[in-house]
Design goal:
Elements lengths: L10 E8 L2 E10 L4 E3 L2 E4 L5 E3 L5 E7 L5 E7 L6 E6 L6 E2 L11 E2 L5 E7 L27 E2 L3 E2 L5 E7 L4 E3 L8 E7 L2 E7 L10 E7 L6 E4 L5 E7 L2 E6 L13 E6 L6 E2 L16 E2 L4 E7 L2 E7 L7 E4 L4 E7 L4 E7 L2 E7 L4 E4 L8 E7 L5 E7 L7 E7 L13 H8 L3 E5 L9 H5 L8 H14 L4 E11 L1 H12 L6 E5 L5 H7 L3 H9 L3 H6 L13 E6 L7 H14 L3 E6 L6 H4 L2 H19 L2
GO biological process, one term: proteolysis
Keywords: Aminopeptidase, Hydrolase, Protease, Serine protease
Organism: Lentzea flaviverrucosa
């Protein structure tokens, strides 16, 4: 895969099924127009496909319970997503909403007469509600720590509210914006259940609970007090289910999400999955039920497995995703479909249990090899190696993932494929701190950044370098977010092992991160502790005088997760010492540049990465 091949990737997203109707959303980057395009495609039981809608970008499709209508979100040009419906037997889609900041993903009522969704409602005079530009807006009065979030922006002046819309397009606001709301579902035809912060967010909290409200509007009532964070409630088999974690205070990091259950009145909640070994991947979508249990995706050593959990709990049955990554899934109670990504394919729609898969256009890929070994303390290490063509020995790039409670997976990874196509062997470690290897594995770095995680990534690198096709004399290190932190740390403490470094959207100094990041007010203390000296000891910037190798500082201008000052401080510290360093800043982008940034910026970033490694690893 080459940088320009981004526009050849057709990525299947959400999927829906009802009888013989299977719909999948498709997304393709358009480098010429610098946007993403895609519509809904129908997938037939024999694996063939045909376009089903023709919007600029249609997604979040939901088939009504009676099987007669499809609701979906449509984005036209640079407009905000709006909610549409269309009959399953064809016809012109009909728009139901016209909201200034757009609508969220719809959820059908059980009787198929209405839909609930979340939409942010702007204060008068802000966010395009007048013809005046942002410079004419009044100042924002900030009184809370949780006042903004990356890739969204400021929060208090555009609170999310629950909306219900009928099939004639009559929209009502069910909540008033006094508190955050998310993840709506229907308890019955007249009652909604949703997620809100503890005590409806009267003060900053990492805890959330389940609440109910009449679908016609009215009083909000507490239904379930969560043990930590709750999300994605739904009703199945006569019971209420949701996903949740367990923690106290700010100790929310590196916690496995599990499946929980209670009667529909919210009493006596119980966790159905093991807290240590089962971690549900929420990015793969809302759990759903069939006649035998609850379907959800579980993180397992880099695999994202579609599992069926019995209604009363117990071990899950793996339905799809062994040595693969299930990105989305759906069932109508009998047919199960899933979007499955593999190392050599961005995603195929699979009719689970039939062997039928449908592929979309992709690109040539390079071979992926699983790696395993042991750290110096005997702890097992695990990851992957993506190999270029030829026998080598190849120059090596080790790429550390972000999080740290995330993972490299068995799914398609465009970055590794681009680097391998350019001639680099790419090492992808999942060190202690990563997700999918047990909760204890994820929590092993709390208060210990730069210790066991470093041992793990270097140990896996040694496993790769012991191969004849990898050149131990030409090795680079790179990563983003926590991976950027690790790149900076390794450059300072183990710089002799690398020829150059590419540190992207990094955390370099916990002291300023605590006050500048959208999550800094709790994240730094949760991972590093509250002692300023301990935070300083775990900050790569503290050791900048030890960095002597060529060092790229890469950041997005509007990154509020790891703010730009984290890059600036490192760049200035290195530049003043005479280190060979450059800073690359992407305008208008946030923390998610590499995954969902503007297509041209993604290509330009790939070009810059390859130029950097060609300069220092191929010379």
């Amino acid at each position: 895969m080459r940088p320009e091949d981004l526009q050849l990737l057709t990525t299947p997203g959400t999927v829906a099924v009802s009888g013989d109707l299977v719909l999948v959303s498709i997304t393709t980057p358009d480098l010429d127009k610098n946007t993403y395009r895609g519509g809904l495609h129908r997938v037939f039981p024999d694996g063939t496909t045909s376009p089903w809608t023709h919007g600029d970008r249609d997604n979040a499709q939901r088939i009504s319970p009676d099987g007669k209508l499809v609701a979906f979100l449509r984005v036209s040009g640079k407009s905000k997503p709006q909610l549409y419906v269309v009959p399953v037997d064809g016809g012109e889609p009909r728009r139901l909403t016209d909201l200034p900041l757009g609508a969220g993903a719809p959820v059908w009522s059980p009787d198929s007469s209405r839909l609930v969704f979340v939409a942010r409602v702007p204060e008068a005079g802000r966010y395009g509600t007048t013809d005046d530009g942002p410079e004419s807006e009044a100042p924002r009065r900030i009184t809370r720590l949780d006042y903004r979030v990356d890739d969204v922006g400021f929060l208090a002046d555009r609170r999310p509210r629950l909306h219900v819309v009928d099939l004639d397009g009559a929209v009502i606001e069910v909540t008033d914006g006094a508190h955050d709301v998310s993840d709506p579902a229907w308890l019955d035809d007249s009652t909604l259940v949703f997620v809100a912060p503890r005590d409806l967010g009267v003060s900053e909290t990492l805890h959330s609970d389940l609440y109910t409200v009449p679908a016609a509007g009215g009083e909000v009532s507490l239904l379930v007090r969560g043990a930590g964070e709750v999300s994605m409630p739904f009703v199945a088999n006569g019971s209420l289910y949701w996903l949740g974690t367990e923690f106290t205070g700010i100790d929310a990091v590196a916690r496995n999400h599990g499946l929980w259950k209670s009667p529909v009145d919210g009493s006596a909640p119980v966790r159905l999955t093991d807290v240590e070994t089962v971690d549900v991947e929420r990015l793969s979508g809302q759990p759903v039920a069939d006649s035998s249990g609850v379907l959800l995706v579980v993180r397992n050593r880099g695999a994202l497995e579609l599992q069926r959990i019995p209604f009363d709990g117990g071990p899950g049955e793996v339905l799809a995703g062994s040595s693969a990554a299930v990105r989305s899934f759906a069932t109508d109670g009998s047919t199960v479909v899933a979007v499955v990504s593999t190392p050599d394919d961005v995603g195929q729609v699979e009719f689970v249990g039939t062997g039928v898969r449908t592929a979309f256009s992709s690109v040539p890929t390079r071979r992926v090899v699983e790696l395993s070994g042991s750290a110096s303390d005997g702890y097992p290490v695990h990851g992957w190696l993506v190999l270029p063509e030829g026998d080598g020995p190849h120059p090596v790039v080790m790429a550390v993932h972000g999080g740290p409670f995330m993972y490299h997976s068995w799914g398609f990874f465009d970055e590794a494929q681009v680097y391998a196509t350019a001639g680099y062997a790419v090492v992808l470690p999942n060190p202690r701190g990563s997700a999918g290897y047990g909760q204890a594995h994820g929590q092993a770095v709390i208060g210990k950044f730069g210790t066991v995680d470093v041992d793990d990534v270097l140990s896996l690198l040694d496993v790769a370098l012991a191969r004849e096709d990898c050149d131990p004399e030409r090795v680079g290190v790179m990563g983003g977010s926590y991976g950027g932190f690790m790149t900076s740390w390794l450059s300072a403490h183990h710089g002799e092992r690398f020829k150059a470094a590419w540190s992207e959207r990094a955390v370099n100094a916990w002291d300023s991160f605590g006050g500048s990041s959208d999550i800094g007010y709790f994240f730094a203390d949760a991972y590093c502790g509250t002692d300023p000296e301990a935070q300083r000891a775990m900050s790569p910037l503290t050791y900048a005088e030890k960095i002597n190798l060529p060092f790229a500082v890469v950041h997005s201008e509007h990154d509020w997760r790891c703010p730009l000052e984290q890059a600036q401080r490192m760049f200035v510290a290195l530049k003043r010492r005479g280190v060979e360093t450059e800073m690359l800043i992407f305008p208008g982008e946030g923390h998610e540049l590499t995954r969902s940034g503007q297509p041209r910026h993604r290509k330009q970033r790939f070009d810059a990465v390859l130029e950097w490694w060609d300069r220092y690893l191929k010379a």
